Amino acid sequence: MNAVIEARGLSKVFHTTVRRPGLGGALRSLVSPERVAKVAVRDVDFRVGKGELLALLGPNGAGKSTTIKMLTGILTPTSGEALVAGVVPHRDRERNAHNIGAVFGQRTQLWWDLPARESFAILRDIYGVPEARYRERIDEFDGLLELSEFWDTRVRHLSLGQRVRCDLAASLLHDPPVVFLDEPTIGMDVVVKEQVRRFLRHQVEERERTVLLTTHDMTEVARLAERVVLINHGRIVLDGPLQEIRRRFGGTWQIRATLADPADVQEIERQEQLTGGDGPDSPHSPGGRPGPDGPHSPGAPHGGQRDLSSLPGFAGIGVLRREGPRVVFGPVGDGAPSVHEALKVVIGRFQVTDLALEENDLEDVMRSAYLSDMPGQQHSSSSSAAVTSASQGG
Ligand SMILES: Nc1ncnc2c1ncn2[C@@H]1O[C@H](COP(=O)(O)OP(=O)(O)OP(=O)(O)O)[C@@H](O)[C@H]1O
């Protein structure tokens, strides 16, 4: 992959002065200030290719904004290197500014007392955008974000959703190949969020921009990101496709199917007997929906019980429950496929008359992923996702 954004061993340590409690403590702090080092980002490596949207995810205080600030040149890394469109951001801020657009959801780059139209004209002049190009882009952005209805309103009077739409358009006026978005849709209503997501998809798919996005909104992640980097305590704990994260931390899907062919039902019965299953709907069968803790949760089939792995293509797929021809398939073990892969296998092998899917909510998946990043926990490695075991950072 030809990387457009590259972080190599990127680290940032903040040094802050702590105030001791009480009046005596305050006086002592004045005379001999106590300095503490906070490692916000440690040894972070990732690459993002042209036309790729990567979601940088992690709990509060994980180090996402600090990483973005180093990649935009706002902060200088303590060690390691950032390279964005061939430029080291903090060393060549001017060239970097021409290559990137950035939106920090909580702040604006527009002039508070000017109407949006005038802010845009100033940015056009700063970046030297030719008039014809400027018109073209404004038309494109207006078509996607409906800016003209508040074009002449002072920025200070815009609603949050209107202001962020303006900020998004403003950040792309100079046609940068790289865009950084730090929680761009925070506080927006669902309609505006969807509009912004369509806009971002357009920028990635049609304009081949490279986008690095942080968000706590899992719907956003599901709609926009194919690949995610998960950061916790300043370290990368996982870098891989969203499907891989679902598989690893949220292997709790179910496929409910009614088999049309009695021969298929017999085949399943045979497999159940072969793998030492307790038979359909025994008191020992897993019963309800597996828990949110992944394949090893108490509800998931385990230890080969009702495992269908010996059927071609069924590795990692088992029977959770069965009542005659009505079968509930679910994941078995660490190598379980995603619900979409499993669905292909099930309908490829069996004729079904009735089908329903249930997949774990992405919020639950991410909660499991965040919680799994505890000292002493090891993630097993995988072919399609680079996984690093992380210890708790300071
Ligand atoms: N200027 C600073 N001085 C000292 N510590 C800082 C500074 N900026 C950030 N930190 C600390 O670095 C850590 C990472 O913060 P950062 O803002 O990067 O997290 P984040 O993942 O973006 O969190 P959130 O999702 O809450 O925005 C936090 O512990 C934070 O307190």
Bound molecules: adenosine-5'-triphosphate
CATH architecture of the largest domain: 3-Layer(aba) Sandwich
Q: List the secondary-structure elements in sequence, H or E.
A: EHEEHEHEHHHEHEHEEHEHEEHEHE
Shape: globular
Tell me the major beta sheet: 7 strands, mixed
How large is the share of residues in beta strands? 25-35%
Report low-confidence residues grouped into runs of 5 or more. Answer: 278-305, 375-394
Alpha plus pi helix count? 12
When the domains are counted, the total is: 2
The overall pLDDT, averaged over residues, is 83
From the alpha carbons, calculate the radius of gyration and give it in angstroms: 26 Å
CATH topology of the largest domain: Rossmann fold
Q: Using the coordinates above, name the CATH class of the largest domain.
A: Alpha Beta
From the helix content, strand content and strand pairing, which structural class follows? alpha/beta
Terminal CA distance: 33 Å
Query: Could you name the CATH homologous superfamily of the largest domain?
Result: P-loop containing nucleotide triphosphate hydrolases
Quick one: how many beta strands?
A: 14
Protein name: ATP-binding cassette domain-containing protein
Biased composition (Low complexity): 380-394
Keywords: Antibiotic resistance, ATP-binding, Nucleotide-binding, Transport
Membrane topology: Peripheral membrane protein
What's a quick, concise take on this entry?
The chain is α/β, with parallel strands linked by helices and 394 residues long. The protein has two domains: 3-247, P-loop containing nucleotide triphosphate hydrolases (Rossmann fold); 251-359, no CATH class.
